[in-house]
Amino acid sequence: MDNYTCNEIAKILNLHTSTVSGWVKRGWLKGVKRSKQHYQVRAEDLKHFLKNPPSRIRNRIAAIDQLTIKYLVG
Question: How does pLDDT run across 46-65, given as a tens digit for each residue?
Answer without folding.
Answer: 999 999 999 999 999 999 99
